[in-house]
Amino acid sequence: MKSLMVQGTSSGAGKTTLVAALCRIFSDKGYSVAPFKSQNMSNFAYVTPEFEISRAQALQAIGSRCKITPDLNPILLKPVGNYNSIVYLNGKRYKKMHAKEYYEKFVNNKGITTATKSLKKLQKNYDLVILEGAGSPAEINLQKFDIANMQIAAKANASVLLISDIDKGGSFASLVGTMALIEKKYQKLVKGFIFNKFRGDLEVLKPGFRKLKKITHIPVMGTIPLMNLDLPEEDSLNANPVEMKWTKKNILKIDNELNKLAKIVNSNLDIKSIERLLQ
Predict the structure, then answer these.
(1) For residues 244 and 251, is the Cβ–Cβ distance under 8 A?
(2) In this prediction, what percent of the chain has a pLDDT beyond 70?
């Protein structure tokens, strides 16, 4: 039983895509792999007559070649406006909640219990669980309510990779600042940095990598180039997602895109070092 987690310095950093790529890479290496995200906020779901989960985890499951089940995303929040969301637990509609009720009464009780139960089930049944965080682990106003990042990483005994979108700018500051704001008891879980959506000469970045390691004592595990992918987007910042049908044709299309993605990520990340974190 091994676990790896991808967290980001912000929403839209590339967590979902990187987890999907790593799921395919490690599946190709012979691991039985499952993705996991304890809590996801999205109005775009993978829907069956029995359950609903975020379509991001369904896409990652295709990358993993594992069965799509509610345990992959035990808490789904569907925003309905005015700080209210419809909460789904284990794929079933639970209740409508205001953000205040969700944070103060739910997350550290029924929320973390539900998420941990699903996580443990996956860890029991798969060689490797690759977790995805939510937003940023450095939201210091919400850290005590955050069951999607460091708290769940600790429960999974997962090594954390921290990804940042360099195309937006400010990645070095974002990585250093995130590490400074993570609670000290969790800082040791972060084992590597990844720069995403890079375009340009990699040699220009390397002096920054050395300074970053000197400041944080954490290595850069790779730089993923900016690329065009024909994969369903989440309804997060700056995304324009569209509905999709989970037909055999569309799933095959996703599968082919995941193979392309995995090939690019595999050639730009230090996968051997990442794999050593699992030993």
Answers:
(1) no
(2) 96
